[in-house]
Every structure is written in structure tokens, then in C-alpha cells.
Amino acid sequence: MTAGRSHPGDKPERDLPAVMERDRAALENELAFYRRQCNDLGARVLRLQEDQSRAHREARRSRTAARLLRTAFGLVNVDASDEAIGNRMLEIVLDNLVCDRAAILRRDPHRGLFSIVNRLGFGRPRLADDVPLAEPPEFFFTSSREASDGVGVVLTEALGLPFVIWAYDPASGVALLFGNRMEANVSRPFGADDREIVEAALGVFADIMQRRRVEEELRIAKIAAEEANSIKAAFLANLSHELRTPLNAIIGFSEIIRDELYGSAPQEKYREYASDIHENGQHLLSLIQDILDFSRLQSGRATLREEYVDLNQAAAAALSAVAPLAGSRGVELTVGIRSGMPAIHADPTRIRQILINLVGNAVKFTPSGGRIEIRANLTEDGGAMLQVIDTGIGMAAEDIPRALEPFCQLENTYTRRFGGTGLGLPLCKTLAERHGGSLEIESAVGQGTTVTVRLPRQRVADGSASMFYRA
Fold it and tell me: Which residues are in the Histidine kinase domain (predicted)?
């Protein structure tokens, strides 16, 4: 009985492990709770930091965009070079991205290359000016987390840096490229969220360049329009003078004949005046014909009626037409055509018109006692070459391009000594080009002028042609 009896002091000793186990479990539960709380708090802090960093980057992008727009507004109307504008744009983005190097590139589609037109942070030695990139992406970046592909290798070699970010605008052919020596430069690697900044800078730069190009084109077009208007005004003044002079003669002489001021017909004076009327009428017809011919040629309505033309006959016909004017001015006309010169396949009327215009123009600017010669020969490549050479007053080299412009007169309307509409040489040049040839002028003041018309080898007969133009 005494052996199985329990004592009150024995129970705590038996329950102590259970109590300790319960206490330990309670402590572990509390630790787990606080651990979860700490983890949640850490996650919230991390999210807060990420949100703060994102907000900071967004604010930085907004500031950069604002600076870009302010800079663009300030640079649009500034008389600065494209290089200076490009450098300023690079400085803004370079400062925002905290990069080591930056470049603006322009695509050359014919060579499949990008040429660097602006660069910052390159120093020495200077890297290559061309970047071989046949199929450029619109956006690209490299980081240590991803291996570089072919594009990445090309771009990192272009900057000489391992980490780059690239943006390309296909419409303008302009690209931006930024690079770092290490990702730690920006406390984070380049990423897709940088695209907005880089593409914003690229768009602003492309817009500035486009606007400057358009403004330059408008400026050039305005100058051209003003020059064309000036030429038109001068032409109308010249034309009115050219038409008025023979018309006054025609009207005056016809009134004398009508009123029989020298008695009743026939009178020798009347025959002289009738001849003057005919001559002035022919001059008017020539002026009007030149204007109509030039208008048809410019509009593409004139067609060539081609056949084989004997240049000896064409030259003789031209000299015959101009001989009266040359004789009255005391100018000698000669022909020097190569022996056995083959015929040319051309429009005979237009070839004759070229020669008459060139010889007539030479007569106007050759003083009494001067000499004009028509030459014809073969060129080294088998083509034909027609030349009108005079010993006249000549012209300065800088005036030659103006002499070939339609309606242009080298002298002032009110002081010029020589008549004409200013269409003779431009008309000859256009006719030569319609035959697949060209017209060139060599001249010097006081040393005469040589006008050369070249026709291609295809225009020269092979010797079997039997049809010739007879002037």
C-alpha cells in the first residue's frame, strides 16, 4: 500500500518538460510572427525604395525632356552649326544618363554604314568614324546579364565601351549611341525604361534638323523665286524693247508709203522702206519663233524629225542666212569642216537653227574686222563636234553660266548695246541636249568666244548613209 502511494511534491517534477516545451513552442510562434512581420516590412521598404527610384527616374526623364524641349526651342532659330546643336543635345542626355561617351550617327543607305557626325567623351585615340550596321534595330542596349549578339559587338566596338544603349529613327536616318565603362556608373544597368529618354532626345534632334533643312530649302526656294521673278521682269523689259523697235520702224515706214510722202509710187525710197519693213518683220518673227521654240522644248511638246544631215550643207545654209547681217557689220564668215566628215543623224531644221543662232550671236558681239568660223570634226570617242569660233569681245568666265540661263542678259536693259531676248544660247543648249549631246562655252574678255556642240557617237553615220539634208 505504501509503495503505490503518490506524494504531492512529485507532480511538478513530472510536468516541467511539458511546461518548457509549451513555452518554447510559444516563443517560436512569436519569433515566426515577428520574422514574418520583419519580412513584410522589408518587402514594403524594398517596394518603397523601388517606387522611389522609379519616381526619381521618371522625374529625371521629365526634367530631361523639358530641358530637351527648351534647348530645341532655343536652338531652332539660332545661327549655329549642326555640329554645335548635336553636341548640345548629347550633353543633356549624357548628363541625365551619367554616361562616359555619346555619339550621333547618320545612316548612309548606299554603303550600309552609319557615320558618326557628333561625339562627346571620346578623347584619344579617336575611334573609327564609320559603324557597319546593315540592319539597325530601332532600340538596343547591352548589360552584364545578357550576352552581346552581333549588333551588341558592333556597337560596343564603335564606342570602345562594354555597355551601350542605342536608338534609331528610320525616317530621318539618325541614331543616338551612349556607352559606359561599367554598369556601376549609373548604379543600375541600362534597361528598357531608358528608351523613353534616348528616343525623346533622338526625336527632338531629328525634328530640329528637319526643321532647319526645311527652312534652308525654303530660303533657297525664296531666293530662286526672287531671281526668277527678276529674270522674268528683265525679260519682259527686254522683249518690249525688242518688239517696240522693229514695230516702230514697220509702222513709220508703212505710214510713209501709205501717205506717199515722197510722191506717188513708184519711188526708190518706197522700195527701201519696203525692204526695211520686211527686215524688221523677219526680226519680229525670229524673236517670236525663239520664244515659241523654247516654250515647246521646255514643255516637252517639241519632237525631233531626224534624218541624215550633211554638215557642209548645214553650215553653208547657216552662213547664207546670217551673211547680210555679218556683211553690214564688216565681219568675215568662214567654214572649216573636216575633209570626209560623215553625216549625222539629227533633225536638220534644229541643227540649222543651232548654227544660225550661234553664228548670229557671234556676229552681234564681234566688232568690224572680226572673224567667225564654223568648224566640224570628230571627237576621240567617235562623236561629232560642231564649233562656232569668233574674235569678238568675249565674256568673263563667271558670266558663262548666266549666259546659258533663259531670258538672261549680261548687260543692263537700259545700257546694253546688243539686242536679243536672251534665249539664243539656252535654246541651242536645249536642242543639243535633246539630241543627246551637250553645249560648252569657252571665253575670255577681249579674246573671243568658242561655243562647242558635242553629239554622241550614235549620231554619226557609219558612211553607208545616202540621204542628206540639203539646206
Answer: 238-459
CA–CA dist 104, 85 (Å, integer): 11
Q: Start-end ranges of CATH 3.30.450.40 in the chain? A: 75-216
Matching CATH number, 75-216, of 3.30.450.40, 2.30.170.40, 3.90.950.20, 2.60.40.2150:
3.30.450.40
Instruction: Dump pLDDT digits (tens) for 261-301.
Output: 766 666 677 677 777 777 777 777 777 777 777 777 766 76
Under 8 Å between Cβ of 441 and 450: yes
Q: Which of 338, 337, 370, 330 is nearest to 355 (CA)?
A: 337
Reported CATH class of domain 307-412+420-459:
alpha beta
Joined grid coordinates for residue 276: 526695211
Long-range own/partner contacts, residues 141-150 (CB < 8 A, 24 or more apart): 141/165, 141/166, 141/190, 141/191, 141/192, 141/194, 142/190, 143/183, 143/189, 143/190, 143/191, 144/183, 144/189, 145/189
What does the longest C-alpha to C-alpha distance in the chain come to? 190
Q: For residue range 95-125, list pLDDT tens digits in order.
A: 766 678 888 888 888 887 898 888 887 765 5
Least confident stretch, 101-105, 119-123, 159-163, 357-361: 119-123
- Region(s) of the chain under CATH 1.10.287.130: 220-299
Reply yes or no on domain 220-299 having CATH 2.60.40.10: no
CB 124 within 8 A of CB 89: no
